[in-house]
Write a structure and sequence with these properties.
The chain has 271 residues and is an alpha/beta fold. It has one domain (2-118, 132-270): Vaccinia Virus protein VP39 (Rossmann fold), CATH 3.40.50. 39% of the residues lie in helices and 20% in strands. It has a seven-stranded mixed sheet with strand order 3-2-1-4-5-7-6, with helices on both faces. Helix 5 (74-83) links the parallel strand 1 (64-68) and strand 2. Helix 3 (33-40) runs antiparallel to helix 5, helix 7 (145-155) packs across helix 8 and helix 9 packs across helix 11. The longest helix is centred in the middle third of the chain and has 13 residues, at 94-106. It is globular and about 50 Å long. The two termini are 28 Å apart. The structure holds S-adenosylmethionine. S-adenosylmethionine binds at residues 4, 8, 41-43, 69-71, 74-75, 91-93, 96, 119-121, 136-138, 141-142, 181.
């Protein structure tokens, strides 16, 4: 797991985001969720997908929610902002968690949104602690799928809803590397969505909704070109989280989706 932790550990991330905001002329006392969106929603279809997941989840303001593999917390904050619920985010990366906490203070959302560094395989919470859970595109980095889903089940209250938005291998796997979650195959543990469904059921969850979003992912990456020449990167962007070969990784996403090597599923589970 150490190499996955290092992959998601850019130095000095929070200060780099602040410098980028300054360079873009943003007033730091008035930063909004939308200002941070280019860097803090690290998943396929960004903010649009997060809004669809919020609709799917139907979490209410009185609920306490856990976000596992939250990254720098863009979707965690958006979930709380749009539903009023209290959300705790956990992630393997200390650097992401540091940025997540400081960005949340910048937005003055710290009363409702908190972050702590932890592994999905050892969640630092009691049994039945959360009214709902969600996890966005972390599963690809987790080899022990059964262990992770058992942990998720353990911390969720009986009757609680779990939202997952996950990448799977498709019929023409293996995939081309690098991709946004992995430099090479040693960091990526993709299985088919059918195999994942079986593990979900073994753990005890009931599958309430299962939506295939692969076509939307294909459209999102359709214009990605093979990078060449001068690779101009935006002031604020996901390259700050995973490195300057971000465009190569995005282009490989296009190839993997076009060749039916990857699929994308959103699902709602009940404990
Ligand atoms: C593709 S990013 C998604 C981040 C976030 N969910 C989002 O949508 O912006 C994957 C995240 O999973 C985290 N991660 C990978 N393995 C993990 C593990 N075993 N436990 C907790 N977090 C993990 C990484 O550190 C990274 O932040």
């Amino acid at each position: 797991m150490n190499h996955i932790h290092s992959y998601y550990s850019p130095n000095n991330l929070y200060n780099k985001i602040i410098s980028a905001l300054n360079n873009l002329g943003r007033d730091l006392s008035k930063v909004t969720l939308a200002d941070l969106q280019p860097v803090d929603e690290f998943h396929i279809r960004g903010e649009t997908a997060t809004k669809e997941l919020i609709e799917l989840a139907q979490f209410s303001p009185d609920m306490r929610i856990l976000d596992v593999g939250c990254g720098v917390g863009g979707s965690t904050r958006r979930l709380s902002h749009e539903t009023g619920c209290k959300v705790t985010g956990v992630d393997l990366s200390d650097e992401y968690i540091d940025a997540a906490n400081r960005l949340t203070e910048l937005l003055n959302m710290q009363d409702n949104v908190k972050f702590t560094a932890a592994s999905a395989l050892e969640l630092p919470f009691d049994d039945n602690s959360f009214d709902g859970t969600w996890s966005i595109q972390m599963n690809m980095n987790v080899e022990d799928k059964l262990g992770w889903l058992k942990e998720l089940y353990r911390v969720l209250k009986p009757g609680g809803r779990a939202v997952l938005y996950e990448v799977f291998e498709n019929k023409n796997a293996p995939i081309y590397f690098p991709v946004p979650w992995a430099q090479d195959s040693s960091m990526s543990f993709l299985i088919s969505s059918d195999s994942y469904r079986q593990i979900i059921s073994t753990v005890g969850f009931k599958i309430e909704v299962w939506n295939d979003k692969t076509n939307l992912a294909q459209k999102a990456f359709a214009r990605m070109k093979e990078p060449s020449g001068d690779l101009k990167l935006p002031a604020l962007g996901l390259h700050m989280l995973i490195g300057d070969d971000f465009k190569t990784k995005s282009y490989n996403m296009r190839r993997n989706l076009d060749d039916d090597r990857l699929s994308l599923i959103e699902t709602l589970l009940i404990k």
